[in-house]
Amino acid sequence: MLDGCNYMSEKKLNIPRHVAIILDGNGRWAKKRMMPRNYGHSQGSKVVEKICEDAYHIGIKYLTVYAFSTENWKRPKDEVNALMKLLSNYLDTSIKTSQKNNMRVKIIGDIKGLSEEIQEKIIKLEEASKNNTGLNFQVAINYGSRDEIIRAVKTLSRDLIEDRILLDGIDEELFSKYLDTGGTPEPDLLIRTSGEQRLSNFLLWQLAYTEFYFTDVLWPDFNKKELLKAIEHYSERKRNYGGIS
């Protein structure tokens, strides 16, 4: 029993090694409270920090969150500017937080599309946390899976032309190494908040055999209880990767 609810105990749960989350519902959460959308994003960023701690204590090894997509640039300019400011501040505080929590942080996405200041902060954060041995935390910023795959194909093609790899040596394992997530195990569980049920161009290659969990809970209301609920559903599923169970 957890928090008085009829959940399985953490010890009985099949804890996924890697959880990916599409953070959705910040704007709607703020609108329900008659607050600006940027207030929702600010509250949502605080939830990210708490979920990182919860995930680590539950036993999750890798956590990947979708923070800003390549399509999000289409949003109103003031909202995009506020998100970039929030991101910049988050990168500043994450160095201290990552050291405190022994957390390794990696940014995935096309960071060249971000400001030079933010790029420098990303490099600084990744360098500062690279030797940490706790939760492996990936944040998708200016990320789109189709863009990621195209960038990977270009780099792979360049290596093929320059004889760094052989044509016959190209397989799924090799191609995966060219993706932003190269070296990271594929997600076992994908969670999307706010009731939407689509991938929104997130980890299309990596989610081939991932279990999906959709919840109506808006991201700023997401907490450890909701995370455990998602893991409970995951624990009840049998994964046979196209085979017969």
Write a brief structural summary:
42% of the residues lie in helices and 14% in strands. With 245 residues, it is an alpha/beta fold.
Return the string of H and E elements: EHHEHEHEHHEEH
Text of the CATH class: Alpha Beta
Oligomer: single chain
Strand order of the largest sheet: 3-4-2-1-5-6
CATH topology (level 3) name: Undecaprenyl pyrophosphate synthetase
The secondary structure category is alpha/beta
The count of strands amounts to: 6
In CATH terms, what is the architecture? Answer: 3-Layer(aba) Sandwich
Number of domains: 1
Number of helices: 7
Dominant shape = globular
- What amount of the residues lies in strands? 5-15%
Fraction of residues in helices?
Answer: 40-55%
The CATH superfamily label reads: Decaprenyl diphosphate synthase-like
- Please tell me how large the radius of gyration is: 19 Å
**Largest sheet, if any?**
6 strands, parallel
Low-confidence stretches: 1-8
Question: Which features does this protein show?
Answer:
245 residues; alpha/beta; Undecaprenyl pyrophosphate synthetase; six-stranded parallel beta sheet; 6 strands; 42% helix; globular
Explain this structure.
Helices cover 42% and strands 14% of the residues. Strand 3, helix 4 (116-129) and strand 4 form a beta-alpha-beta unit. The chain starts with 17 loop residues before the first strand and ends in a 10-residue tail after the last helix. A 6-stranded parallel beta sheet has the order 3-4-2-1-5-6, with helices on both faces. The chain is an alpha/beta fold and 245 residues long. It has one domain (14-143, 186-235): 3-Layer(aba) Sandwich (Undecaprenyl pyrophosphate synthetase), CATH 3.40.1180.
